[in-house]
């Protein structure tokens, strides 16, 4: 600081602007005998993964449909899936999570006969070797329905607790409409989506096999996020690699499943196979649209990161103005991208900052494109800690 008499100007450090981080990174937890177990491994090139089985199919579906980066957690057996979810706790860039192997079933590998024994050698001492018997593949025990449900509930609970990612759930394969509704009825959350039916993919032999739909859904989400933003519905995009479905879903079936929050996959004449829904599993109408929940996840994360610069600073007028500028800039950018309704920024959102008792609190209201009404979340510092709380409109 200068000691020369006179008038001197001292400029405070400007507030760092807020920006939305990428939302197209997925994570998959699955059964595999390869690679490190219970460790999250980043994958940017599916060819380098060299994975087979359900996990390999899911990763291929993700990349074939628009994904560019994911994390993979391998577990040796299905009963390790719960522990595998814990490996994602330290991976912050993930915004979509799926556990396709929760419904894993062992492949139908027939028992094979061993190689024929050579004729006895009279010059070789010792008794003859053991008699030949059928060689059967090692068996891995799949999860029961209750165990599979427990894994999915743990996944959903993790997403709700963290508030920075959404679960993509698979129902068991081969369910009819009533059975899918029963499975869907076990969840009430805006942090998860359910996709039905499973997808048929080609095999080199000319046959097809069923693959969980969550990998396809994650790829479509990633593709749409990069093309037009996380606020856009990840639906009505033709699926790559898919040649059929595990069950027929027509207008009558979708008329039942769609209002219940089940996202249907449809085989449409001349348009290919498409995901024809973008709903969450929430019963609250304000949160029934997947892009609404995912947009809030992305914006709340961006607001939280940008607001950390005000931690442990005086809760005065200057800090209120700086926080208002940061949040306003973030929301104006989202309005220009079409994520918010309203002809002007004033119609699309508001930001109000207040202080008191060591608190720096910002109340933010946004008119999301769908539903076109104000949803409220509060972001602020209370006793040195950053808090975010959503409120009903």
UniProtKB/TrEMBL annotation:
Region of interest: Disordered: 107-135
InterPro entries in alphabetical order: Phage_sheath_subtilisin (IPR035089), Tail_sheath_C (IPR020287), Tail_sheath_structural (IPR052042)
Cleavable signal peptide: none
Residues in Tail sheath protein subtilisin-like domain copies: 142-281
Pfam family, one: Phage_sheath_1
Similarity remark: Belongs to the myoviridae tail sheath protein family.
PANTHER family: PHAGE TAIL SHEATH PROTEIN (PTHR35861:SF1), PTHR35861
Official protein name in the record: Tail sheath protein
